[in-house]
Amino acid sequence: MRVRVTLTLTRAAVTAAALLAAAVLGATPAAAVADGTPATPGQYPFAVKLAMTHIPRPDGTFYNSACSAALISPTWIITAGHCFHDVSRVPVSGPVPYDTTATLNTVDASHTPGEIRNVISVQQAGTTDIAVAQLSAPVTDVAPLGLSDTKPAPGRVLTIAGWGATSSINPAPGTQLFTGQVKIQTVTPATVTVVGYRPAADTSACLYDSGAPYFTTTTHHRAARLVSVESNGPDCPHTAAETTARVDTVATWITTVVPNLPCADRWTTPTSQPAEASDGSE
Q: What domains are there in the chain, each with its CATH number?
């Protein structure tokens, strides 16, 4: 029996020039990990569940939402830039615009609370739909996910781990971490498009998975690397292309913002990471 995972509520721009303007108006839902599989205990402890509360609307009302993210240092996470915005949906930097908590080091938040931190500040990359955010206290027992600094290649197999909903119909943020594999289809200066690969051709991101990490599948104990983060796509599940934001093009910028980014030799392969050597993985 297949299980579905899901993404965030807003659609972000897919090019650097249009990023901020597109996030202001006309945003539509993006997709997360539909037709994926539940993560097993101890798998991908760096995968972060973001919960946002009391987000303001232009009419004076408020709502709650969620995104996914990944730990990249003891005190910083990476996610989609459009997850943090003002009342007009313009991505913002500085103190978080609404109360946001980060949960990680668990695969089932309803039974195992994991570790919880407040998110206190955010910095937008500006050139793509990526933001890094600071946590209220260090996470010292989870190995951060390393950053890729090389251009992604079409055909490469990546893994996604997200905390989204299970369907685009009446979606709600999930309490179970889900995972699946995709293949890179195209690469632009700011984005990577991916299509479903395993366990199904329609394995895809869904609502509340915006910011979910896409990372390399590896062999021979080589370190996994974060290639991109979820940005936007069709309702899930689907077999169409999903748009993700490239990490390598902003890796140097991230080093200027995150003071305690781990050295490359400390970036370790995630637990139970599947390999797919025949499809271009290391």
A: 45-142+252-257 (2.40.10.10)
- pTM for this structure? 0.84
Q: 181 near 158, Cβ under 8 Å?
A: yes
Q: Terminus-to-terminus CA distance in the chain, angstroms?
A: 30
Residues 236-253 pLDDT 10s:
889 999 999 999 999 999
What does the pLDDT look like over 11-67, one tens digit per residue?
Answer: 333 333 333 333 333 333 333 378 889 999 999 999 999 999 999 999 999 999 999
DSSP string covering the chain, please? --B---B-S-PPPSSTTTHHHHHHS--------BTBEEPPTTS-TTEEEEEEEEEE-TTS-EEEEEEEEEEEETTEEEE-GGGSB-TT--B--EE-SSEEEEEES-SBTTT---EEEEEEEEEE-SSSS-EEEEESS---SSPPPEEP-S---TT-EEEEEE---S-SSS----SB-EEEEEEEEEE-SSEEEEEEEES-TT-B--BT-TT-EEEE--STTPPPEEEEEEEE-SSSS-SS-EEEEESGGGHHHHHHH-TTPPPGGG--PPTT----GGGT--
Tell me: the pLDDT tens digits for 109-163? Answer: 999 999 999 999 999 999 999 999 999 999 999 999 999 999 999 999 999 999 9
Residue in this structure with the two tokens 């969620």, named with its chain if needed: 66
Cα gap 43→41, rounded to integer Å: 6
